[in-house]
Amino acid sequence: HRSMENPDDKYKIFDSSDLQGGAAAGRVIGFDSTGVVVLQRRFTYTAAFGLLAVGLGCLLGVVVSSVRAGQLQAQVQALRQAQSETCRTEQCLQQAAYLTKIMNHSANPCDDFYEYACGNYDKMLPYDHWFAYTSVFHEMDRKAQDDIETALSKPTADDSPNWERKVKDYYWTCVQYYRTYIHDENPFITQVLNKTDHGGLGNYLLGRSLDTASVDLMFRTVSGKYFVPSLFSARSHWNDYLHKSNSDWKYTIWVGSSSRGVGIIRYNLYYSRHQDIYKRFVKEVAELLIRDSKMNVPNQAQVVETFASDVLYVEQQLLQIHSDSWPSQWMMFMSSNPSHPDRMLKVSDLTNRMSSLIDFKAFLSSIYGQDKITDNTKVVMYSEVYMDKLNTLLTQMKNNNTQEYNRKIGNFLTWVLASFFEWDLSPEYRLKFKSIRDITWY
User: Fold this and answer.
1) What's the whole-model pTM score?
2) How far apart are CA 67 and CA 293, in angstroms?
3) What CA–CA distance (Å, rounded) separates 38 from 305?
4) What are the tens digits of pLDDT across the range 32-51?
5) Which of 189, 219, 286, 401 is least enclosed by beta carbons within 10 angstroms?
6) Which helix (H) or strand (E) holds 31?
């Protein structure tokens, strides 16, 4: 076959003898486009051995998989047993029974319409709905909320830090939780008004007398211990000057006007009709306080009338000096920073500036602690005009009639405290406070 010869040996004709080592013996069946022989391979011993190795590997994989499957099955079985044991408690069985009831597959809403319609479903299949909300995570959340509420609901002690009192006051202000008390167990009455060791709160209202020392102690109790703004307020503010000077103190104490004390009747109560409504409201609350404290007050009608008149007088005076001092106070704010160290006052100087009517060292110590306040502690009087006018007002009241001054300030402080802690009184009080708010918007 000369036609198939290839003198240039460009294309070589292969036969089976040209294959090396019998690695892939076969027969020639033709050529492809490049002239390479295409063989139909047959198994040899080498190929058989390779296949056997692959088979053994697969068998080993199957064995390993079977072992792992057995272990997994054992774990699942153990888990099922554990779950079965867990659900043998009475509560778990009850819950499972109720869940089984509500999954009644035999009930057909169409065929059994009249059986389950018109509210009969709950009668036919009773189910305690609280079970639907019972879970491990829900119980953890509920327990955590109960613990927090319990901690916030506990009353503060005399040595409680200021932040604790603020947090608890803020909590009750936010949630406005309805705590209904029997009058005989009213905490405000038993722990505040009837106790003489709290500075004589409500002394005049309850038929007792007050002196100047008692008024000062009463003020520290109301605005210090109970942290209720009254004649003025005190609070802490960040001080950039102290921060930049690397001082150990980063905050300063600000003393000034109190929106709570001076604004409790608001400007709209200047109208006579609102004043009459407000005065009647104060008298009604005073009568409730006397009734619930079970005190025998001689001339009760006159005492209540005097109490209400004193409250309105002091509040209107504070509101007036607050209004008069604001324009000039604003100009002082614009001209200089009251937090500047050069404008800060020592606590002893502040007491002298207020004619010693208020012991500021004792007052601030009741808020921030005795170890924090000394006579040389610097404070910011951010409402100088108001504080000076307040000093003038209190001095004039005391010089005119000391006994009347003690009575008016004492009644005012009693009222401020009662109105601030209205949620610690019974619902009867709260409804009255709500009614006056609806009328006067304060």
Assistant:
1) 0.55
2) 81
3) 123
4) 444 444 444 444 445 554 55
5) 401
6) strand 26-31
